[in-house]
Backbone:
């Protein structure tokens, strides 16, 4: 695939009025934009903590294009679109005509011709969502549901919503540790960008050297690297544990999963070093007994399943806001008012 593009993602994801048009990466978005996504997501959760249903996207068509496996992300996008009354089509890419030699471009143009308003795209190539938004289907709202090891912006926003709702603290006042395979994780990259934009000053990253990206020292404001897990966890408000992304690792980076658990697995003893009300998060899929002990995954401090529910609210917000941007471009804004 030719991934060279004329503009950066941050240049194409907002329209001329500064509203979200595509959602490709956290980088380049302002604190105001991220806060608007969080506030809109919050407005889709009622006082009884339940997700609402409305008809904001009635008559609109959302297509899920997952070129890579997914459980939570694909299903929560579908649930979100249905809660907004959109038509949802899950395209079975593995059985589509791309397997008969049709180019990705042609497949996408055909899907666009079926009156798609939004493409939710997951792809193993970093830059795929940007490429589609910039050069293939600029008139369809493109939402990145994870591209290679580059970005996973809706996961980052659901993580931010979870932190905001569960800790009830300002991002400026939070200490957070992100532990595990940082190198291959699009979640870590997008989480760090979102935390920095929202003003978090204490982002601690913990990983063996083999699982750290090159040039990590350039990650910027508020980010500190720790080799020893016990030091990193000290007095934390939030811990995010990450799975080892074996599908993105060419040669085995670790001697064994048991070794990883010994050095970097989150167990009760280590969690006790954090603040007593520290929350534990994981984007899933989780490997119990590798990056996290089962007793913690299922324990009182775990908010892992709340993340999943918050994922629906965030995806509703991103779908509604990006459609608002698209409709505004087409002069159809009165159709929707968030
Ligand atoms: C993550 C992903 O796909 O990047 N999972 C998710 O979206 N819930 C993290 C992972 O696969 O480990």
Residues:
């Amino acid at each position: 695939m030719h991934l060279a593009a004329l503009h950066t993602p941050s240049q194409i994801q907002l329209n001329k009025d500064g509203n979200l048009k595509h959602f490709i990466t956290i980088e380049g978005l302002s604190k105001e934009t991220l806060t608007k996504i969080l506030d809109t997501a919050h407005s889709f959760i009622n006082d009884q903590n339940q997700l609402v249903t409305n008809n904001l996207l009635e008559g609109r068509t959302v297509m899920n294009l997952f070129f890579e496996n997914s459980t939570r992300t694909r299903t929560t996008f579908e649930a979100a679109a249905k809660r907004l009354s959109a038509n949802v089509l899950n395209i079975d890419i593995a059985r589509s005509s791309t397997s008969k030699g049709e180019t990705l471009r042609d497949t996408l143009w055909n899907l666009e011709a079926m009156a798609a308003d939004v493409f939710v795209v997951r792809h193993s190539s970093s830059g795929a969502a940007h490429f589609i938004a910039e050069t293939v289907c600029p008139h369809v709202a493109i939402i990145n549901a994870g591209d290679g090891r580059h970005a996973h912006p809706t996961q980052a926003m659901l993580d931010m919503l979870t932190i905001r709702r569960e800790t009830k603290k300002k991002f400026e006042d939070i200490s957070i540790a992100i532990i595990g395979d940082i190198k291959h994780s699009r979640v870590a990259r997008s989480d760090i960008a979102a935390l920095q934009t929202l003003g978090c000053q204490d982002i601690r990253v913990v990983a063996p050297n083999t699982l750290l990206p090159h040039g990590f020292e350039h990650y910027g404001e508020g980010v500190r690297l720790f080799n020893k897990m016990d030091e990193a966890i000290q007095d934390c408000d939030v811990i995010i544990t990450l799975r080892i992304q074996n599908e993105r690792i060419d040669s085995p980076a670790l001697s064994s999963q048991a070794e990883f658990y010994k050095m970097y697995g989150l167990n009760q003893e280590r969690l006790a070093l954090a603040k007593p009300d520290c929350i534990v998060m994981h984007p899933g899929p989780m490997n119990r007994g590798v990056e996290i002990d089962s007793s913690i995954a299922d324990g009182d401090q775990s908010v892992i399943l709340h993340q999943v529910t918050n994922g629906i609210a965030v995806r509703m917000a991103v779908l509604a806001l990006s459609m608002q941007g698209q409709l505004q471009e087409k002069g159809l804004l009165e159709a929707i008012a968030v």
